[in-house]
């Protein structure tokens, strides 16, 4: 924790910078909803990458995980890899021919 006024000032400055970055990234996420990328899956992928980056900033700075032991980084790396795998599964499921997409009858 910060003991001197200089350390407190640096900590407050870092929180303001990270908060501003989160506000800008939130604006980018909202702006992304108005932009049409080549595929809808790309919009989702970019949005999820922005969300993951914002979640990482919140966890590292506001939850003070950047001062933890090395074990927490291994757990976080596994969690991040698992989340990325789930994101890709979600994106790739849109082109899966085995997924039922509606009541279209090809015989008519």
UniProtKB/TrEMBL annotation:
Cellular compartment(s): Cell membrane
The residues forming a coiled coil are none
Chief subcellular location equals: membrane
Task: From the record, give the transmembrane residue ranges.
Answer: 15-35, 41-63, 75-94
Q: Which keywords fit this entry according to its UniProt record? A: Cell membrane, Membrane, Transmembrane, Transmembrane helix
Membrane topology recorded in Swiss-Prot or TrEMBL: Multi-pass membrane protein
InterPro entries xrefs: Caa3_sub_IV, Cyt_c_oxidase_su4_prok
Q: Note the Pfam families from the entry.
A: COX4_pro
The keyword Protein transport belongs to this UniProt entry's keyword annotation: no
Q: Does the keyword Isomerase apply?
A: no
The entry's protein name is Cytochrome c oxidase subunit 4
Source organism of the structure: Prosthecobacter algae
